[in-house]
Amino acid sequence: MTNKVILVTGAAGFIGSNLVMELLKEVHPVHIIGIDNMNDYYDVSIKEYRLKQIEGLAAEHPDSSWKFVKGSIADKELVDSLFEEYHPAVVVNLAAQAGVRYSITNPDVYIQSNLIGFYNILEACRHSYDSGQAGVEHLVYASSSSVYGTNKKVPYSTEDKVDNPVSLYAATKKSNELMAHAYSKLYNIPSTGLRFFTVYGPAGRPDMAYFGFTNKLCNNETIQIFNYGNCKRDFTYVDDIVEGVKRVMQAAPEKKMGEDGLPIPPYAVYNIGNSHPENLLEFVDILQQELIRAGVLPEDYDFEAHKKLVPMQAGDVPVTYADTTALEEDFGFRPSTSLREGLRKFAEWYREFYI
């Protein structure tokens, strides 16, 4: 990726910002264009904090370049102008409206960002080859473990049929995979989709359960643990996700012609998860221990008095569990950060940011 132009959408987001920082640290020189609409779905100050961190790192690496554009990928003219001006070799599409529960009450933003926005990215990739230009070498995009819906078989494999989404969010992510496949087939665009499994870590998304739990525990409120604590999640630390994305970016699916003289779609989908699901109750117990250790909660905090076990919520699934065999075989990588190590880093960041 040395000296290449990389476009990262959702660059002020949780995964996007961490990816940009990793590229600035590890690839010299590199030229990164970031776009983010900076919407207020959650606290914008966290997005601004992430951007400041990126700017600080960019200043330390003057051989590389970082350009941030505030705008939406649903704005076709803006997307086209970025491709025309910067000619990205690698595109990492992480911009999306996230969250299962929010999609039940605010469907419009999911259609705008996740469908129209992704279509605009695909079209821009398609036209990047116009007039014999080199064009986009690899499109990497975020999918989600939620595409597995009510899949009963665990661990979830990318070979499984995923035709039963239980939320609009999941349906838009499955649609992204289908759209990418069509564009890969029609226009020979190398594309790789990544199904992320419950990403957590410092400066993460406040709408995620672990972050919401922390806020409530700090405010002396009671937390609700769904499915009576029997949910299992494949919690994946953000650094592991970023390492997986970085490796995938460097290995585009190969362009090949079929016997019919037409392209075989240069298309791939991988799971990136910890492949070790944790019981939600245990997760929350480790979280409160680490919050006490970091000085976010007092030593004598009565955790038992602040938790309530409740039934499942609409749109949720009882277990997420990634089969990461393909990722290990193709890239020699599997996430390895332990829950305690990851939650310790989150708790220490939370103390610095909020207390």
TrEMBL record:
Pfam families in the cross-refs: GDP_Man_Dehyd
Keyword DNA-binding: no
Keyword NAD in annotation: yes
UniProt keyword list: NAD
Residue ranges annotated for the NAD(P)-binding domain, each copy included: 7-345
Name of the protein: GDP-mannose 4,6-dehydratase
